[in-house]
Amino acid sequence: MAEVNAEQAALWNTSGQGWARVQDTVGQLMRPFEELLVEKAAERPRRRVLDVGCGTGGVTRAVAAATGAECVGVDIAESMVAAAREHGQAEFLLADAQTHVFEQRFDLVVSRFGVMFFADPGAAFTNLRTAVEPGGELCFITWRAQEENPFMLTGDRVAREILPGMPARDLDGPGPFSLADPARVREVLDGWADVEVTPIDRTTRLPEEVLLPYLTNMGPVSRALREVPERDRDRVLDRVRGAFDEFVHDGEVSFPTATWRVTASAPL
Ligand SMILES: C[S@@+](CC[C@H](N)C(=O)[O-])C[C@H]1O[C@@H](n2cnc3c(N)ncnc32)[C@H](O)[C@@H]1O
């Protein structure tokens, strides 16, 4: 498995352990995007839904609960799939969505930030199209540019301050911002019909006390912190926390997010 996307599989398998620890926090933070996908799923009766890059499976379960459809979550990282399977309520498949030959045909494919990591996105979305019934739909949420997402920009800057040698994010290669350009989205969805790319601006919120657990388990800050010697950790954590002060007000963390909601359908 995962020969094409082996590097991403390894990265996410390590990250998945942190994600599993703070999955309730991730669920809370990302709730506005779960709601958009549930809304899409509930637009009409669904028989079978696929959630791509499902992580620990929060969206898969929410769609299953809202629609009563048979829901399958697919993810390339073993640690994510293991955490998802602990909850049940849906089927969770360990596979590379770019290359896996899906046995079932779905009437809807959804994804919350799970489709930006393919080595060959065009091939991946073609593969997903073959897993969809004619007339079936696709709906995913992806990040707009890093500059429009100040919380992520701060995370990236802080990680680089902790570890100055950390390689800069490749904004075009597999990664959170690889589909930030709508022209690129349309290009990789070649063969899909009715492509619509809609900007979504949402403020997301967290209680202040989960900010540090979140940052130390997820994303670039957590990766940089792995390299910090134990004796320096508390001092570095103080600096990390201070860098996010601008997002904390009255015991709550809140920040604006800029994403795209992308929808398309498989030609009849
Ligand atoms: C940013 S996380 C999003 C997780 C989940 N959708 C959520 O919103 O909580 C991206 C997920 O995509 C998965 N992923 C990356 N490349 C993949 C691939 N080629 N096939 C399947 N899953 C993949 C990762 O393992 C990770 O769980």
Number of β-strand runs: 8
Largest sheet: 8 strands, mixed
CATH class: Alpha Beta
| Helix-strand pattern | HHHEHEHEEHEHHEHHHEE
For the record, the CATH architecture stands as 3-Layer(aba) Sandwich
Please mark out the parts with pLDDT under 50 across 5 or more consecutive residues, or reply none: none
Instruction: Provide a count of the helices.
Output: 11
User: What is the name of the CATH superfamily?
Assistant: Vaccinia Virus protein VP39
Provide an overview of this structure.
- This protein has a single domain, classed as Rossmann fold.
- 41% of the residues lie in helices and 24% in strands.
- It is of the alpha/beta class.
- Strand 7 (248-249) and strand 8 (252-265) form a beta hairpin.
- The protein has eleven helices and eight strands.
- The model has no long low-confidence stretch (mean pLDDT 94).
- Bound molecules: S-adenosylmethionine.
- S-adenosylmethionine is lined by residues 5, 8, 12, 26, 30, 53-55, 58-59, 74-77, 80, 96-98, 112-114, 117-118.
Topology of this protein?
Elements: H1 6-21, H2 23-29, H3 31-41, E1 48-52, H4 58-67, E2 70-75, H5 78-87, E3 91-94, E4 106-112, H6 121-130, E5 132-143, H7 150-162, H8 182-188, E6 193-207, H9 211-217, H10 219-225, H11 233-243, E7 248-249, E8 252-265
Parallel strand pairs: 1-2, 1-4, 2-3, 4-5
Antiparallel strand pairs: 5-8, 6-8, 7-8
Give me some keywords for this one:
8-stranded mixed beta sheet; Rossmann fold; binds S-adenosylmethionine; 268 residues; alpha/beta
